[in-house]
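User: Predict the full complex structure for these chains.
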Amino acid sequence: MPPSAATPRPTLLIIGGAEDRRGRASILKRFVKLAGGRKARIVIIPTASSFQDEVVQAYAEVFTRIGVASWSAVNPATRLDAGDPAGVAAIDDATGIFMSGGSQLRLSQIFAGTPLGEALHRAHRRGAVIGGTSAGASIMSEFMISLGDEGITPRQRSSQLSRGLGFIEGVVIDQHFAQRQRYGRLMSLIAMSPDLIGIGIDENTALEVVDGVRATVLGKGGVYVLDCRAAITDAPDARTGAPLLVSNAVVHSLPAGATFDLEKLVLVDFVEKHPDLDIKMTIAQSSQP
Amino acid sequence: MPPSAATPRPTLLIIGGAEDRRGRASILKRFVKLAGGRKARIVIIPTASSFQDEVVQAYAEVFTRIGVASWSAVNPATRLDAGDPAGVAAIDDATGIFMSGGSQLRLSQIFAGTPLGEALHRAHRRGAVIGGTSAGASIMSEFMISLGDEGITPRQRSSQLSRGLGFIEGVVIDQHFAQRQRYGRLMSLIAMSPDLIGIGIDENTALEVVDGVRATVLGKGGVYVLDCRAAITDAPDARTGAPLLVSNAVVHSLPAGATFDLEKLVLVDFVEKHPDLDIKMTIAQSSQP
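Assistant: Here is the predicted structure of the two-chain assembly.
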């Protein structure tokens, strides 16, 4: 939705990496549509990548192919450069901002708490779509997963939490989820911080989040929501590397088309179709006052 | 516990494959202890394997090294051979039976509903320990996972259910769980049959099950319990190969030392330590009568 719309709805398009760019590019087409279609003004941020020029060229090509007339790149090299007024102006004028893959730590180093980062937040609030793939996906949360090991087994200290940009609160976003076997690292992280919700996104798959709450899956793979609010864990005590006890985790595996409420942590479609349902998420609770 | 004990407790030692046989062999030592220690009379069943002679030799070596004086092998080549009275007599006399890895379909073809299979059930009821690794683990349930694909994503028709031997009811056991990324295939299977419980066991890890209920983890990896009783799924309708919707699955990741109640589906230790807790497993229920 372009920023000129009557009621701007802050919208994120969070992509799990390896989106089909050369083929049908359906996820990137959705990004362009959310940014206003042919009239979109898109800013590409390749800062996470080690191949920034190639990244800008590749996304410029596909956005142009989709029909976008106006794009630019914003690419500060250091935290000091993130005060650049031209970059701030470009972001302030954009209807869509796209952050590439690479290292999410590079993004947070340069954008968190700088004038360019503040411009991104202004853009988000006024309804410009913020898109990001891989590192550009993880950076969107308040705190993000920045490092970790592969595997299904949740293990002690198998992942690390760092500061993100904070377009969405209360969640941690992981990407390349099934492809790089990141179930264990995300579960271990959520077990340790049970009031955070884990969101794992597969490659060539995206989660479109409106108002920080209503999340719809698109693309070829799945999105996973890991909820340890009622879990029992030995995370405070386990040895480094040991498999963690995480009992009573609630897991949602969501394919394309599923819409999920990130506040209530329930399937929106299902609840709308079954208004008589009383969804009880509390698994373990004291029967004493 | 040897069959001569006052109250025989049917005991299973379900191993996720690749148990450390040449090193400390702690899981196989536990098997021998449950079978009566040095006085154990162990029957090795290598029938699942394509290398049956080597398998018998390898397990005979390690059991002898642990101190077992008496072992034999029972290895019918066809379903007709599974009436062999000598094999039946060996199983009827055993204090422990160990089934090797290989193909669980080969085991079910030959043992299910034959005199040797009936002898295994008698052995289980009288308290001889039934051990099995990999294929020998999966075969233990009433119905078993027999084929499937790798990956974290639950996909439509990514696994198949076949008849097992039925020493334990209401569960489906998968093995090499984290190592071969079997989370998705087991979840898809449980989503389709939500009154079954999925149990995934890592390599060099085992679940010791007493009376079909009390299950304790031992070994290096984790055991995973997947519970879709309250899940919402599109499994009846999804296209072949498509990622499945499975919302509200409850997942337990259990390390060595954890004891789990397979009937109530809660952590035993935790419940015993917190008698005031009221564990509510119902996630979605109608508020109407």
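Residues 1-5, 281-289 of chain B have pLDDT under 50 and may be disordered.
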